[in-house]
Amino acid sequence: MPRKTVAIVATLVAVVVLLAGLRWTGTPAAGSEGRAAPALTPEVGPVESDPQAPEAGTPRAPAFAMASLPPPDAPLATVFDALAEAADAGDVRASCRLAWDLKRCQTLDARQRIPDFHMDSAAHAAAGSTAEAELIGEVIAAQNRVARDRAMCEGLTDDRLAQSSQRMLQAARLGHAPSQSMFAMWPSFGSRLSLDDVDIVAFHRDNAMTLLRRAAAHGEPTALFGLMHACHFGELRLSHGTIEVGRDPACAMATALALRGVADPRTIEDADEVIRESAAQLDAEARDRVRRQADAYRSRLGAQPLVDLARGIFAPYLQSPCQDLGAQA
């Protein structure tokens, strides 16, 4: 494997462990307090098999919707039942808020280490340099986010926290593209699996790539990033194991081409290498098809602002969940 390819893998793993911090540490439960976790089947519908379907990534109309959502950063323990009731009735805004607020709480322990990481980096920067000042700013911002999330998560019981995977899947099934991408790439269950996890782990194994393709078809940058790596390396690498998906140079090249228009310089550098390696495996006709697919992805990205994937794939979503739905207004 080329040295640069190895670097891509190392960078991706480091980002997952440090910035996403999505390793599950609790014991999943059905939910003995308040509302139970949603079942894997029917009430919010299955994952359709066609990732290019018109409704791909499009939130569905709810049977019941909250008139207004709780204020941002409201203590989750106090608003959990209201959000869960609306989410179970099909309100994608409530479902997203509940899923991502749970994710913020579930990743809190891991994210508490981020300020120390930035502080160590600042200590190695030249005194008085711009780099040092930027890193110190990162330390302060990370400390503020941790303090905010610690207050938001206070009083949340373990059985409610254990609903994190199910609630993210619920938002994904309701058509929320970032939730589809998050559930596919970093579900809340990790290496400490129990028998309670069997159904959702099996569901994830069978549907992760479908969810990624649906989110990418909607123009979700994190899904394009995940697809690029999965199709290039032939596998989804997760904290609880690896899902073999097979190498697909056409998919890898199309997603890499699309990412070039919205990603940070480091990710563009990685995408360019994927494009070069993939193009060498395709004939002229296949490369033309790839470019058309990349154009389709670009059309869905629209006026998407720059996404700094190198600094944390889901970091902006964890900092301000569901803004694409107006759920933090």
Secondary structure layout plus pairing:
Blueprint: H1 3-20, H2 76-88, H3 92-106, H4 108-111, H5 114-123, H6 130-153, H7 158-161, H8 164-173, H9 177-185, H10 198-217, H11 221-233, E1 235-238, E2 241-244, H12 249-259, H13 265-279, H14 284-301, H15 315-319
Could you characterize the architecture of this molecule?
57% of the residues lie in helices and 2% in strands. The chain has helices at residues 3-20, 76-88, 92-106, 108-111, 114-123, 130-153, 158-161, 164-173, 177-185, 198-217, 221-233, 249-259, 265-279, 284-301, 315-319, and strands at 235-238, 241-244. The chain has a two-stranded antiparallel sheet with strand order 1-2. The longest helix has 24 residues, at 130-153. The chain is globular. It starts with a helix and ends in a 10-residue tail after the last helix.
Count of DSSP strands = 2
Residues in β-strands, percent: under 5%
Rounded to the nearest angstrom, the radius of gyration is 20 Å
Sequence stretches where pLDDT stays below 50 over 5 or more residues: 1-33, 40-57
The end-to-end span amounts to: 47 Å
Order of helices and strands: HHHHHHHHHHHEEHHHH
Number of discrete domains: 1
SSE class: mainly alpha
The largest sheet is: 2 strands, antiparallel
Summed up, the helix count is: 15
**Overall outline:** globular
Helix content: 55-70%
The side-by-side strand order for the widest beta sheet comes to 1-2
> Could you tell me the mean pLDDT?
79
